[in-house]
Design a protein that fits this description.
heterodimer; A: mainly alpha; rod-shaped; B: 315 residues; mainly alpha; 2 domains; 9 helices; 4 strands
C-alpha cells in the first residue's frame, strides 16, 4: 500500500497545501467574484422584472386612457348630434312659426280687406239706394205731375225698396 | 450593394493559400523525418536534429523544488497558485467596476458564472442552488483553469534546477485528492446541516431489523421483516462505502485524465515534432472542460442527494 502511495506521489504536506490553496481560492473568489456577480445578476433580474411590471402598468394605463377617450369621444359625438338635432328642430319651429305668422297676417289682411270691401259695397249700395230713392221720387213726381213731398213719402219708398230687396233675396 | 466577391479559399488569395499549404506540408514531412519513426525508417539526419524533441520521462510524483518552513513546494503547487492568482486577478479586474449594462469581458464572465449558477439552480433547486454555488463554481473554475493554463505553450518548458518550474496542478494526484476531500466534506457538511442526525440513518439503517427481531420476542415471527431489515442494513453499509469510494473515483478520474492528456501531448510532440501535438491540444481543451464539468456536476448531484430527505428508505 505504501508503495502505491509513494509511486503516485501522495504526501500529506502537498495534499494539505492544495486543500488550503483551494479554500483560499474559494474564500477570495467569494468576495471578488461570486458576491458581486450574484448581486449584479439579482439586480438585473430585479430591474427586468420591475421594468416589465412598469410596462404592464403603462400598458394598462394606456388601455384605460384609450377607453376613456373613446367614451368621451362617443359622448361628445352624441352630444353634438343632439345639439344639431335640437338646432334643426328649433329652426323648424322658427320656420313653422314664421309661416304661421305670415299666414295669420295674410288672413288678417285679407279679412280686413274683405271687411273694407263689404263696407264699401254697403256704402255704395246705400248711396245707390238713396240716389235711386231720390230719383224715384223725382221720377214719380214727374210722372204724377205733382210734387211729392219728399219727406212725406220717404217712408213709403223705403218700404217699397225694402220689399223689393226682400223679394229679390227670396 | 453586393459584398465584394471573395476570391480564393479560406479567406486567402490562391497563391498565398498554396504557399501556406506547401509550408505546412514541409513542416509535416520534416517533423516526421526528424521524429523517431522517421529516423528509424530512413536513418538519422543530422541537419534535422534541431527539430527533434528529447524522449519524455514522465513520472507521477511531482518533484519538490524547494522547502518553505519545512513545507515541500512542488511545481504542481506553484502551478496551482498561478491558477489561483490568475482567477483572482481576472475576477477582480472584471468585478471592480461592475456595470448594469455589461461590457464584453463582464458579459462573458457573467455568462460563465451565470451558467453554473443556473446549473446549480436547476439541479439543487433555487434556494439550495444559491448555497452550493460558491463551492461548485470554485471547483469548476479551479479544475478548468488548472487544465487550461497548463496547455499554454511553454508552460512546462521553464526549468528550475533539474525540474520543470510548472506542471499542471491536476496532474499531481494530491490536487484532485484535495478537491475530492473538499467535495466530500462539503457534501457531509450540508447533509448533516440539513438533515441533522437522520443523515446517518441512510448509512446505518439498523432500525427495521431490530424492530423485526423485537417482534419475534413479542411472539410475532416475521421472516420477511427480518430479511428486508437485513437487506436494508447491507444497502446502508454499501452506501457508506460508496461515499468513501467517491473520493477515490473523483481523484483518479481527474488525475488519470489529466496525466494521460499531458503524457499524450509529450509523446505526440516526441513522435512527430511540431505537428502531431496540435490536434491533441484541441482534444485536451475539451477534456479539461469536460473534467471540470464532471467534477463540479457530480459534487452538485451528491450534495443535492445528501440534502434531500430519504423518507422512502426510512420505513
Amino acid at each position: 500500500m505504501g508503495g502505491i502511495v509513494d509511486e503516485l506521489g501522495i504526501n500529506l504536506p502537498t495534499l494539505l497545501t492544495q486543500v488550503v490553496t483551494f479554500i483560499i481560492l474559494l474564500v477570495i473568489l467569494r468576495f471578488v467574484a461570486y458576491k458581486p456577480i450574484m448581486r449584479m445578476l439579482d439586480e438585473r433580474s430585479k430591474r427586468v422584472k420591475e421594468s416589465m411590471d412598469q410596462a404592464e402598468t403603462v400598458k394598462e394605463q394606456s388601455a384605460h386612457a384609450e377607453e376613456e377617450l373613446k367614451k368621451q369621444l362617443g359622448e361628445a359625438s352624441r352630444e353634438g348630434q343632439e345639439r344639431i338635432a335640437r338646432a334643426v328642430k328649433a329652426g323648424e319651429e322658427v320656420k313653422q312659426k314664421a309661416q304661421e305668422d305670415a299666414k295669420k297676417e295674410a288672413e288678417t289682411l285679407l279679412n280686413r280687406a274683405r271687411a273694407e270691401i263689404q263696407r264699401e259695397r254697403d256704402d255704395a249700395i246705400g248711396e245707390v239706394r238713396r240716389e235711386f230713392a231720390d230719383l224715384t221720387v223725382l221720377a214719380a213726381g214727374k210722372v204724377i205731375e205733382k210734387s211729392l213731398d219728399k219727406e212725406e213719402h220717404r217712408e213709403l219708398i223705403d218700404k217699397v225698396l225694402e220689399e223689393s230687396s226682400t223679394e229679390k233675396k227670396e | 450593394m453586393a459584398e465584394p466577391q471573395k476570391r480564393g479559399y479560406l479567406g486567402c488569395s490562391f497563391p498565398v493559400l498554396i504557399i501556406i499549404v506547401i509550408i505546412a506540408l514541409a513542416i509535416i514531412i520534416l517533423g516526421f523525418l526528424a521524429g523517431p519513426i522517421g529516423s528509424k525508417l530512413i536513418g538519422e539526419m543530422e541537419w534535422l536534429s534541431w527539430m527533434s524533441v528529447d524522449e519524455p520521462e514522465p513520472h507521477l510524483p511531482a518533484p519538490v523544488l524547494f522547502n518553505v518552513l519545512g513545507l515541500p513546494i512542488t511545481n504542481t503547487i506553484i502551478a496551482g497558485w498561478i491558477t489561483v492568482v490568475f482567477l483572482v486577478v481576472v475576477s477582480w479586474v472584471i468585478t471592480r467596476r461592475m456595470k448594469l449594462v455589461p461590457g464584453r469581458l463582464q458579459a462573458a464572465f457573467e455568462f460563465l458564472l451565470g451558467w453554473i449558477y443556473d446549473l446549480c439552480g436547476s439541479i439543487a433547486g433555487e434556494e439550495n442552488g444559491r448555497k452550493f454555488f460558491p463551492v461548485i463554481c470554485t471547483i469548476f473554475l479551479f479544475v478548468l483553469f488548472n487544465a487550461w493554463l497548463s496547455l499554454i505553450p511553454g508552460f512546462g518548458s521553464i526549468l528550475f534546477g533539474h525540474h520543470e518550474l510548472l506542471r499542471g496542478a491536476n496532474t499531481d494526484v494530491n490536487t484532485p485528492l484535495a478537491i475530492a476531500l473538499v467535495s466530500f466534506v462539503f457534501v457531509l457538511y450540508f447533509g448533516l446541516k440539513t438533515l441533522g442526525i437522520s443523515f446517518f440513518r441512510q448509512y446505518f439503517n439498523f432500525g427495521p431489523v431490530f424492530h423485526s427481531i423485537g417482534q419475534v420476542f413479542k411472539g410475532k415471527f416475521n421472516l420477511m421483516g427480518i430479511f428486508s431489515g437485513a437487506v436494508g442494513v447491507f444497502v446502508g453499509l454499501l452506501e457508506l462505502l460508496s461515499m468513501f469510494i467517491r473520493i477515490i473515483s473523483f481523484t483518479f478520474r481527474l488525475f488519470g485524465n489529466m496525466t494521460a492528456g499531458e503524457i499524450l501531448l509529450l509523446i505526440a510532440a516526441f513522435l512527430v515534432p511540431w505537428v502531431l501535438a496540435l490536434p491533441f491540444y484541441g482534444l485536451e481543451l475539451l477534456v479539461g472542460f469536460v473534467q471540470a464539468l464532471i467534477f463540479a456536476g457530480l459534487t452538485l448531484v451528491f450534495v443535492t442527494m445528501a440534502v434531500s430527505p430519504h423518507e422512502g428508505e426510512a420505513h
